[in-house]
Every structure is written in structure tokens, then in C-alpha cells.
Specification:
The complex is a heterodimer. By secondary structure, chain A is an alpha/beta fold. Chain A has helices spanning about 1-25, 35-60, 65, 70-100, 115-135, 145-170, 175-205, 280-285, 320-335, 355-360, 390-395, 410-420; strands at about 210-215, 220-225, 240-245, 255-260, 270-275, 290-300, 310-315, 340-345, 365-370, 380-385, 400-405, 430-435. The longest helix of chain A has 30 residues, at about 175-205. Chain A is elongated. The mean pLDDT of chain A is about 90. Chain B is about 60% helix and about 0% strand. Chain B is mainly alpha-helical. The longest helix of chain B has 28 residues, at about 1-30. The chains are: A alpha/beta, B mainly alpha. Chains A and B meet through helix 1, helix 2, helix 4 and strand 12 of A and helix 1 and helix 3 of B.
Chain lengths: ~450, ~180
Amino acid sequence: MNRVISGFFWISIYLLVVLAPILLMLVAPIPSGRTFLVELSVALGFVGLTQLAVQFVLIARFKKLTAPYGVDIILEYHRKIALVAVCLILAHPVLILIEHPARIMLFNPLGGTWASRFGLLSIFSLILLVVTSIWRTEMKLNYERWRVTHNVLGIIALAAAQAHVSLAGLYINTAWKQTLWIVASLIMLSLITYLRLIKPFIQKRRPYQVVSVSPETADSFTLTIEPDGHPGIRFEPGQFAWIKVGDSSWSVDEHPFSFTSSAEQSDDLSFGIKKLGDFTERIEHVDPGTPVYLDGPHGAFSIDRMEGAGYVFIVGGIGITPVMSFLRTMADRGDTRPILLIYADVDEDALAYREDISRLAKKLNLETVYVLEEPPPDWDGEEGFVDHDLLERHLPKENITRKYFICGPPAMMDAVETDLLDRGIHRENLLFERFELA
Amino acid sequence: MRHFIANITVAVIALLLISLACTWALVRSGQLILTTEKEFEMQRFIAAGADLSNEEWLEIGEAVYIRNCAACHAQAATGQSNYYPALWNQDRVLEAENGREYVIQTIIYGSATGLYSAPMPPLGNLSDLQISAALNYVLHTFSEAPVDFITTDEVSAQRDLQLREREVGRTRPDVPSPFELSGSR
């Protein structure tokens, strides 16, 4: 309930912030209303700018603010609403130009005025931001470099937009309005300082160290760490944390990984990691004792957030990691609610944690179905994909409401979602974890 | 469920922002939010056929100027380098042939002369009273020679001519540029 209340609380604050500039524009003295297109253009510019500024709050990973929804949802929202904001902002110069074609001279970066140049700079940065974010992999931009670029372009876009408004804004016509706008923008910009400079400083004072790195399969391993000189953190099963490995907590080399250990034990924390690139390869070869810095716990994909009479976990590939945390936590708690685990992967070698799962099954009311795309000749589990027929064979027939946790490749999650909804399972009983945070 | 809600929220917020901007544009362009009560009173006063005193013209004119013109031309009409012209000694423009018409047209239709790097945007949304008051304020305050005040009738005579910024710019009277006029004082 508490979470619901704070969820609504933050949404109301958000709406208030979004509407604030429009309300401020109505405070006297205000210029005489201009034509529809010009006023529409100005209004779109202002609401777009506000959205742009709010993005800095969304990405700052404030736990209080993100906890009700899960930071992954906030980041997904960030990606989509930022795109909306860019479209609104782009409409601003276009509409002005339609209304006043003579203003084409303001679109020349060498001509025009300082107001128009800052406007152009902001729009140019925003377009670059969108392009580098949507086509990052196609542009062969690695994650770390993209992140630095993303931060810098974001700062330029907001600072230039604020300069544009300060110089050109008919609505920013008194010293106190001018001050209010500049201060608000500076606060938003300083949030990035919080995330990139102050937060690492706090992390530095609560370090962890590597206990062990143990292989699970050919392309995945478990990283176990322990708190170094402090009591550590508590998390909910299924949550994740951003991890930095090495001497500096200010490194931009930071990636999110799911906890695989039990939420009932906080002395040792373990993470399931799939080898995907430079960073994961580097972690695989770190020595015990190497410092580790954590930003977490984050995320809302947790059995503790969706209590059910029983559970169905449907996972593919590395999506097994949060489920390992579910199973271990439930075993530690002596929780014997019925669980059906459907675990799909390419081949037998890719399946991780099989021994752990069969050991845990002794303490749990757990039924496990392995699904392989390319099964070996002697395979006695399911083969193919998690499709309608497979779910038909295995989904529980009993008349209790189970909660469904689904984590895996997007195509699998979409297919499973459609199928479960078709079966009449209510959407509120389904919880998905999408891994692509970048 | 949460992803579903997140997508719905994006759509709802986007629609909210767009409809908010459209409402704003409708309300503002429809002049539903009056800038000051004083102007409204004066408008009725003039409609009733009464004459305004010089003080009243200048009082309204200053308010209109500060809200609609000063962002570019600056409060003391000094303009900004070569972006926006200074408005000192514009009586010279007014005295030239077609000068009065030209000055009024620059406000209603905007003007692009190429002398400055930003064109003057059309401000035909201002009422006849606002336009004449602002012009009278500028001419009276920032010129040395006394000028005949521009009347609301003169302004309304220039309406509905369908001119573009560049067309107005080409009809600029043959007087020194605003830059030179400002320096001549």
C-alpha cells in the first residue's frame, strides 16, 4: 500500500513539474497573444524543454523515486518520453518557420542571433542524442563511450536550450522569471553531477570485494562479493544492481546484473553474469580481493512484490538469474508454495544452475521443465520453443491464482505474453523483466 | 503489467502535453487572456469616440513595449549589436515619404530588410490601440523632435494588405539605417 501511495505521490509531483512552466507563463506581465501557430510553437517548445529537464531526474537513479515502479521501468519511460520531447521540440522551429518564412535566416548558424544559435545547438545535440541511442550498435559505439557521449550531449542540449529561452523568450520577461528558469535548469544539470560524482563518492565509502568467480556454463559465470567493512545491503529476490569493478568508483564502466543469491543472506552477494563484451570478460578474470562498487538494489521484478498462492517462472537464457534468487530465497524461508519453472535455452551446455536447481527442488515444491532448441539425442526434456502447445502441456490446471514471472529474450516474452493473455490470465498477474537498460 | 502501464503513461503524457500546447495556443491567439485591464478599458474608451491624453498613450505604450518589444529591442531601445535594431530617432523615418505607413506595416506584417540578422516578426495580433500606443511611446521617448502621434485609424488603414516581411522591407524609406540614426543623437 505504501508503495502504491508513493507511486501516486511521485506521479502527481511529476505532473506538477510538467505543468509548472505553463502556469508560470500566465503570471503577469505576459506578452499579448500571438497567432495560433506561433503560440503553439512556443508552448510545444516550453513543454518539450521541461520534459528534457525532467529526464535528468529520471536517470539519476533516486531509490525513493524509482522504487515504486522499478528503475528499469523508469529507464524505459525515459527512452520513450525523451523521444516524445524531442519531437515536440523539433516542432517548435518548424512551426515558427511556417508562420514567418523570413526567419529562415535564423537557421543559418553563422547568421542569426545568439538566441537562434543556441536553439540550433540544442536541436543539433538532441538529434545526435537520438541517433546515437537508437542506432548505437549499428554505429559500433561501445556502451561506455556511448554513455559519456550521451551525458555530454544531454548537458549541452539542456544548457543550450536554457540559453535560447533566456535570450529569446518573450515569456521570460522579468528578472525573477529569468532567475527561476536558470536556477531550475542548473538544478537539473547538477543531478548528473550527483549521479556521476557524488554517488561514486558514497560508494567509495561502502566498498565490496570479490570473493570468487566461478563458471556456470561456457558463456556465463557467477560473481560472488562480500561487503568490506560495513554490513552490506538487503535486497528483494529478483532485484539487480549496477556494478563497477576495479580501483575507481568513478569509472564509467558500470553494468547492471541480477542478484542470484538468497535475499535472506546479506554477507555474501552473488550475481549471474553472461559474457557479452569487454566488461564481462574483464570481470571473469579478476582476482579475489578486487574492490567492487554497488549501486543498488534496484528493480521491481520480485516475488516479494507480487504475492501469489503459487508461481510460474518462464525464463530464457540468462533470464534464469533472478529466478535463482527467487528459488534460493524461498528455500531459505521454507516457503513451499507451488512453483513451475520453465527454463528454455539453445542447448544442454547453455543451461546454467542445473545442479543447484535439482538440489533446491528437494526443499521446494518445484516442478522444472527444461526446453532446448537443439536437444542432444538422449534428451528427455522438452524441445523447441516455449509455445502454445508446450504451455498447454505444463501450465497448472488447478484453480488457484498463480503469479507469472517472465524473463528472457524479447521475442520469447512477447509470444508468452500473448499466449497467457489469450488463456484469460489477467494482465495484473504477469510480471516481465526486460534486460536492455542501455 | 508494469511495462504495459509505462507505455500507457508515455501515451497519456504525450497527449496531455500536445493538448495542453494546443489549448494554450487557442487561448492565447484568441486573446482570451487579456494582458491588462487598463488596455481593455482604453479600447472601449476609444471605441466610444473619445480621445486619449498624451500621458495615457505613453502609459499604455510603455506597457505594450515592455511586454512585446523589449525582449529584442531592449528596454532603453538600444537594440542588440547587429541582431536587432536600436529604435532611437525614428522620427526621421516617420517624416520621410510613406514613413508612417512603413512603420505601422513593420509591426503588422514584420519586416526583413537584410540590415539585421534577425527579421522583425509580424505582430498583427496586437490591437490597433496597442500598436499605435507602442509606436507613440517609442517615437516620443526616444526621439528628439516632437512627432504627430499615430492614431488607431492610421493603424487600421494598414490592415488586410496581405504583405510578407520582405515586401515590407523593400518599402523602407530612404533614410539612414537605424544604426546610424541611433548614433546621430
